[in-house]
Please model this.
Amino acid sequence: MGCRASLWLLISSCWVWGIGCGTMETVLGTLGKATILGVPPKFQELTQRFGTATWKRSVENPLNKEYLFTYYNGNYTNYKPGQIRFHPSNFSLEILSTQRQDQQLYEYSITMEAGETNWHIQLAVYEPVSDPSIHILDWMLANDSCTVTLNCTAARGDNISYSWASSEASTSSPCTHNGSLLLLSYDPTNSSLACACTASNPVSRRTTAFHSSICSIEQQGSWRTGMLLLGVVLPILILIVIAGAFTLVYVIANMRQPREQSPHTEDSTVHTIYSQVQRVEKPKPPCSPVGTDHPTCTTIYAAATNASLPPYSPQSPNTEPKTVYASVMLPIS
Model:
């Protein structure tokens, strides 16, 4: 239920039940922090005079109320220990850790002889804003002017409002603007321009500065130098890699060529053949055994060898000298 509806129901109940409604104020509470609900000096005097007071808060509507604290002639009772604290010096109520469900209508009632008088407090709870961050959505450098689109956002907080201003006191600053988006145009040679974004809500306020350096001439010069170096060095590196690849292919091809020209067949081996010569003689008795003084048979030992030995190759045939034993038989006459 909204605050306006709660207030209307409160006023209606005052008229219906004839209760003195007194005055109402709004107190802002910060989520997670302590909140003090104070009592005006007039009500403090009445409490000391009549000695009876009660802290209550509305639940769902002003007619349903929850008792939080009672005070009677110096004695008091806390109905929410660990959540609230009562200060007898000024009769104020402290909420130790404010939560969203504490956003209610609170009532401080003083019982008098002729009736009671009330002090109403509407508590509004807000989450504090976090430090805002500035993002560059777009930028352009043209005609010696830099145009930047900035967006300021805060990650946490309720009911956040954004505003832009110059970090220095200036009435004609291009940074002055209300809203999260800022379209900023300035001279890129002006390095002293600084804008600040402020994110705020009823209980907190945070500011972040932005320095105009994105379009600076120095940054553009360094960017162009980097691009120039990239355009010169990269082609040279590519040429070196290609030349190295061609050199490697050429060396491998030359290493394979001698192997392909080496002999692989035994047809190129040169042999020497010795022919046998016979003469006609008269028949003689059979050959005497080997080792006698006058053998009747003559044995010729002929060696057939290669004229020249080719270089050794694992695939070439056996080229060792070959020995042929030839026996010449003389005819018997």
Notes: Residues 128 and 203 are 6 Å apart (CA to CA).
